[in-house]
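#help-structures
NK: newbie question, is this the right format to request a structure? protein is UbiA prenyltransferase
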Amino acid sequence: MSTSISALRKSHASPSFAALVGKTANACFRLGRFHTLMGYVIFTTPAVITVALYHAARLGSAPSLELVQSAARLTLALIICILSYRGAGLAWDDIIDRDIDGSVARTKSRPLPAGDISLSGALLYCGFQISITSLLFQKLLPMEASLVNAIGWIIFLVYPFLKFFTYWAQAGGSLLMAWVVPVAWVACVCTFEPSGAATVADKWAYVASIAARDWQIVLPIFMIEFLFSFFHETVYGCQDTSDDMKLGVFSTSILFGYQRGPQILKPIIFAYLGVVFYSTYLVGLHAVLLTLIPSYVLISEIYALRMADPRSCARFAKRGIEIKIILGLTCWVSFLWKACFA
């Protein structure tokens, strides 16, 4: 009889343990934003575009098939590394913002304020994700890319605190997202032109030489991502403006205001479209074609935007993600077309 009772207790204990593990795994998954399309697109698309533009610029200097294979391998490697990197950074952001998130209607269901994971558990996950990211960068990309990405880690560390003392927190977030561009560019360059340097100092010197040589191409690509992220994050933040003001949190959404916001963002969007045209023109892709779709969608959406309406802001943010996907895919298709048929 006692044996059957013991077995019954164990049968009840196992599902509870399994449920706890499942709940924790789900919480970690959401901490890294692996459950949203935005989480997969925001940080990876800059790498996808950069790889396509770099290899398009090299067409004619190496066999086309070799360039296509290299671009595919680097795109996959960068997506894997950057998703892991982003997962760690967003977990850190949620750790710092846990009290704020609990007071904002849109974010109170996130794992930490909802109690789905403890603070110590979130910190353990963040540390684990950082370790995985470091290993992935080491195994999949040249070391110089890891060195450049170290600056991104510093920005990630500081970024969550910006909203407490400056209205320009979105500029910091935009810098963080755009920093993927130099990481991807250095990874591409060092794949074709390995430095052969033995020391970290020499590798840094090689990165500096790449920056001095290629900045006229890299800077416009960087600005594509910076400008896009800035207007996208500003509009996205308007969903929480009223809650942020009550909590004393700063943002460009508050600084610009509902009335002036669209007027300020319109020239930024036109500048963004201009940089897209210029960057693709430099590498010989079909720049006019690349700008037609995002131009039409962005311009129509900015004129329809009502920053005082959270639903309108959410719609604009969703359209922005779709545009990033379209732009990344179009860059790649245009590169493949030029490599195979031009």
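mod (FA): yep, format's fine, and the tokens are attached above. The chain has 15 helices and no strands.
NK: thank you!
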